[in-house]
C-alpha cells in the first residue's frame, strides 16, 4: 500500500504494513517485541542510519521503523531479513525470527498451540464447523471473514496463519493419537462457497488416511446424542495429566480437575460410540462429496 508524503520523510513508494499490532494484554509477547525493537534500533544507530534512511533502504515507511523499534509493531520475517542486511547485523537480527514467530499470534491461540504440541492424545467433537486442526487455509479464511463484527484484513491473515501453524501436530514424531467427531451438518454447510467446501471435504479424506488420525461423523438422524451441549475437547499428556473443555460447562474454560475431566471424557467416549465408525465415516464423506 503506497503512502503519500505527509511530512515524515516517507516517499510515495514507502509502505507501512509488514507486521502486526502488539496485543496490549499480552505482557510476555510485548516484552519480546520490545527487546527485538531495541536491538534493531541499536544496530541502526551503529550503522549511522536515521529511521527515515533505513525505511528508504527497506522500502518501508519511517513510521513503521519507529513502531518496530518502539515495540508497538511485530515485524514480519521478511522485514527481519531485510533489516539485518541493511544494518550489517551479520545474521544476528534475522536469528531473532523464531522469537518473533512465538509471539506474533494472539496469546490465547499460542497457549492452545503449546498444549496441542505437547499432547500425546487429542479427542474432539465439533458441531458448528470443521475442527480448526482439520481446516484448509481457504476454509479457515472464510470462517474468519464471515465473523461479525468484521475482523480487519490484517487480523484475518494473522488468525489464519496461526491456525495453519497449529497443524504441524500432524507431522510430529512420535505422532499423537488424534480423534475427531464431526456433526453431519458441518460437512454439508457450504462455508466459503462450493469449491472451498469441496476442497475441505477432500482434505478430510486425505487426513483420514493418516494412521494416527480417526475422523468420525455423527449423523443428524441419530435418536440419541451425548453432545447436545456443544463442542468439546480433551488433551492428554505423557505425564498422565490432561486438560479438557466443554462448551457451556465449567464456564466454558479449560479444566484439569479430575472430576470435571471425567465428565468430559465420558461424553466424548459416548459420542464416539454413537457416531459412525471411521470406515463408515469415510464412506459418508465420499458420498457427500459425490453429491456436489
UniProtKB/TrEMBL annotation:
Biased composition (Acidic residues): 14-27
Region (Disordered) location: 1-27
Sequence ranges assigned to domain DUF5753 in this UniProt record: 110-287
Name under which the protein is recorded: Helix-turn-helix transcriptional regulator
Lineage of source species: Bacteria, Bacillati, Actinomycetota, Actinomycetes, Kitasatosporales
